[in-house]
Amino acid sequence: MKRLSKPIADLKVRYDVIVVGSGYGGGVAASRLARCGQSVCLLERGREFALGEFPDHPLEAQREFQITNDLGHTGSKLGLFDMRMGDDIHVFIGCGLGGTSLINANVSLKADPRVWEDPQWPDELASDPELEIGYERAHRMLSPVPYPDTQRIDKLEAMKASAVAFGTQATKPPINVTFEDQENHAGVYQPACTLCGDCCSGCNVGAKNTVQMNYLPDAASFGAEIYTEASVSHVRKEGGKWRVYFELVGAEREKFGVPLQSIVTETVVLAAGTLGSTEILLRSQQEGLKVSDQLGEGFTGNGDVLAFGYNNDTRINGIGYGHPKPEERDPVGPCISGLIDLRGSDRLEDGFVIEEGSIPSGLAPFLPALFVGGAGIFGRDTDFSLSDELDEAGRAAKSLLFGAYDGAVNNTQTYLVMSHDDAAGRIELKNDSVDISWPGVADQEIFNRVDDALKRATAVHGGTHIKNPMSRTVFGKNLITVHPLGGCCIGRDRTTGVV
Q1: Are 50 and 3 in contact (CB under 8 A)?
Q2: 241-252: per-residue pLDDT in tens?
């Protein structure tokens, strides 16, 4: 692929449309508006990654982490892995051209139809037949398909066995991954997935159908200009136009007192993600922009839970090995290839899905010590006998001696759960960056039900159920979400929503 972004020196002072952000929101907006003949400028705070530049070694992965907490910011502001640590919940998002689509787990699952019955949705949207057309258009561009069973995937087979404990069968969700060499709808050639398992650290193969592979090339082919490493601060209304203020990331403007740069447009599309768009609006509010009192309200983590079934009696093979494939490795498969769908509850809020996942190769060297320590401190074994304990101790020793691709870690299932929380979080500005306040979020009943379900899924394989092993280390005891939503919610008017 050729580079999509242009040098900042080419930036004009005026455009018909400025799109802020380049993930699913910004990528789609830029594509469709450019096709309408508008002059479009897209601003992305992260950098552009070419194939082969995503981290698949420990030192590379370490350099790509940036962390924001009460003490400030550490790491490069261009780091791919962006962790926002709060007092109540942590948020993990992507930073780069393509947004979090670069590091997500690929699933394109349609919402439970009952979601649209929530009175929060304006009737004009919830009952609009165009919603189905939107699904169809997204499906055409993202091309999600279930894993085609070209090779046996151990973690998928283990998930099928776990589903029996719930009286159901595991399904294979549609995932945004290409499994045959082909040119996609945006004219980009994509090679077939190599089943390396590194989806969540960025696909160096080019088989993952990120926004970087479809909507953004489509936008560029219709004339949209894409600029990276440009972080938008706020927007200001000037008569009938908008002025968008931004800074070049890494230029350390603040040290020299250099003012923000700005460009003018008729229309602004804020698509910088839940945290980014809300932050820009909060800062714009401080600068005088009139916005709804609902700004910052309704934050939800999508009911996300990350947990593990550690040291199973069953081989899982869920640790990615990167690209190219080592000769001796069996395929790991796409990050998520199997799902246990438990959304058929009487109440929408009681339903959830359990997905299996893979851990990227760049983290592999750290896993044996992390899991052995985590299991010893707060893991719960699901089977008990002397012989079993000896077997488990032997597998743990193997991982410590020979690494994550052997022993207990290689027999560990990653569980990713999406459910329904109460969406009662609030986003505020603190020290000029977003802060999430949500007291007691981890104590909600849904998370107890999810925890019980994951113990059942793990017990099928005789493993040790571990809640997120990061949770009693530097990351605190909090939940971690990879699906932040809310902050600038849609509504019928300014009393019920921001847009």
Answers
A1: yes
A2: 999 999 999 877
